[in-house]
Amino acid sequence: LWILAPILTLVLGITIGVLVIVWLEREISAGLQQRIGPEYAGPLGVLQALADGTKLLFKENLFPSRGDTRLFSIGPAIAVVSTLLSYSVIPFAYRFVLSDLSMGVFLWIAISSIVPIGLLMSGYGSNNKYSFLGGLRAAAQSISYEIPLTLCVLSISLLSNSSSTVDIVEAQSKYGFWGWNLWRQPIGFIIFLISSLAECERLPFDLPEAEEELVAGYQTEYSGIKFGLFYVASYLNLLVSSLFVTVLYLGGWNIFIPVFGITIGIFSTLVKTYLFLFISITTRWTLPRLRMDQLLNLGWKFLLPISLGNLLLTTSSQLLSL
Amino acid sequence: MILSVLSSPALVSGLMVAQDKNSVHSVMFPILVFRDTLGLLLLLGLDVSAMMFPVVHIGDIDVSFLFVVMMFHIQIAEICEEVLRYLPVSGIIGLILWWEMFFILDNETIPLLPTQRNTTSLRYTVYAGKVRSWTNLETLGNLLYTYYFVWFLLPSLILLVAMIGAIVLTMHRTTKVKRQDIFRRNAIDFRRTIMRRTTDPLTIY
């Protein structure tokens, strides 16, 4: 029963993390667009996310009258729950992880495959042709970018001889800064960045939830807290992707000097996560959106062969060095 | 206790797949079935096979089924007809599957359950496992890639053929579709594409 305490701590940390990310996105996008970000809610606008959430709570919770009510309600829940489950395998410091599975990284891959189901359900449940199409497109995008993601993760597992996240981070601690997987798999890093941005449905892969096209895709008929769930699910996915980038490529809790405590480990993990968050938020507000066929083209015809080639390179280098 | 919590929804959802008149619901129930069997596999300690379930079954097979079911206009009114007409053939198929299930359950040589295990105490540590134990992934890889590699390559070839077949079947009229060449598109210089002419000031409006 004592397992509830770490779970609650993690969930609290995640919630605060999501609030921080929402505020970060506002501030960074404001800086990119040369305007001032949120400044009314709390000092420096820190409580903006809470204000958004409270506003969504007070809105009317609509159901489409002839849509499938049960699927409509469960759709966002599935997306959020699956993303929250994959937080349990991220190590924040040495062995400071909720569950040290022997295939932790594989768990994230497996659970991110459940997210398209939630999108399809929510797109179908709203009695709307365009949100249905948006849901189909979102699911197609999600499943097509899983494969380069999985192949890059596979290359990392090959390098670290294990699929456990703790082992992967420990395998990167040998040479300090130059032992990070970033230098050993630069192609894989770039592919992983692009694929995880596509999995989170952030720009430039924003087509399912673009406001200008398809009228917010599968999220059109949602209002109130269900839309809030989708909103939160997007940022949760972003946070888990950036945490996985730091764990897999940027060396987890390792910094140049040996880490002596847990807090320094958590701090360095969060700093590296912030780096990836900054990159993805900057990308969102800089690059234009990809069209759907360009998106799928990129996933299947460009990233998949390159990630296969990356896997081939990794396996051959492992064979040669043994 | 957890076994019954997981296995009964699996059985009920399996029944609901065949029973539900709404075809989208009957593709959603396999998700529940997969989740419960995932839990059962985790209870057995097969972590890799359990993780294969969401990736392959829920993420790909079920999504494909959902795509098919959602995009086809399936008339629900036709499904509400008499169900008893199908009973002879479907009853025979059901009995065959029932018999197969008992055939598997009655198998004395189930290699998964360790018979030497002291099942009364909840904390039973296998000390030999702490020295050097193979993870599930390692055992799978050891067998699959060394002894049975031909059988591994053969399904991949079949999958390749299936993929190419699906693409060939749905590809039509490729000559008349105008494709964009991105490099040519980016290399367009406006000075050479826009023609400058003086317009007649009387015909502007």
UniProtKB/TrEMBL annotation, chain A:
Domain of life: Eukaryota
Localization terms from the record: Cell membrane; Membrane
InterPro entries in the cross-refs: NADH_UbQ_OxRdtase_su1/FPO, NADH_UbQ_OxRdtase_su1_CS
MF terms in GO: NADH dehydrogenase activity
Any single biological process term in GO: aerobic respiration
Keywords: Membrane, NAD, Transmembrane, Transmembrane helix
Record keyword Transmembrane present: yes
Any one of the GO CC terms: plasma membrane
Keyword NAD applies: yes
Membrane topology according to the record: Multi-pass membrane protein
Membrane-traversing stretches: 6-24, 71-93, 105-124, 229-249, 255-281, 302-320
Main location: membrane
The family this protein is said to belong to: Belongs to the complex I subunit 1 family.
PANTHER family: NADH DEHYDROGENASE SUBUNIT 1, NADH-UBIQUINONE OXIDOREDUCTASE CHAIN 1
Protein name: NAD(P)H-quinone oxidoreductase subunit 1
Organism name: Linum tenue
Automatic annotation (TrEMBL), chain B:
Pfam family, one: Oxidored_q3
Keyword Transport recorded: yes
EC code: 7.1.1.2
Lipid metabolism among keywords: no
Membrane topology summary: Multi-pass membrane protein
Molecular function via GO: NADH dehydrogenase (ubiquinone) activity
Gene Ontology cellular component annotations, sorted alphabetically: mitochondrial membrane
TM segment ranges: 42-72, 84-105, 145-169
Keywords assigned by UniProt, alphabetized: Electron transport, Membrane, Mitochondrion, NAD, Respiratory chain, Translocase, Transmembrane, Transmembrane helix, Transport, Ubiquinone
Compartments in which it is found: Mitochondrion membrane
Source species, domain of life: Eukaryota
Record's catalysed reaction(s): a ubiquinone + NADH + 5 H(+)(in) = a ubiquinol + NAD(+) + 4 H(+)(out)
Protein family membership: Belongs to the complex I subunit 6 family.
PANTHER family, per the entry: NADH-UBIQUINONE OXIDOREDUCTASE CHAIN 6
Function: Core subunit of the mitochondrial membrane respiratory chain NADH dehydrogenase (Complex I) that is believed to belong to the minimal assembly required for catalysis. Complex I functions in the transfer of electrons from NADH to the respiratory chain. The immediate electron acceptor for the enzyme is believed to be ubiquinone.
Protein's name in the database: NADH-ubiquinone oxidoreductase chain 6
Organism: Linum tenue
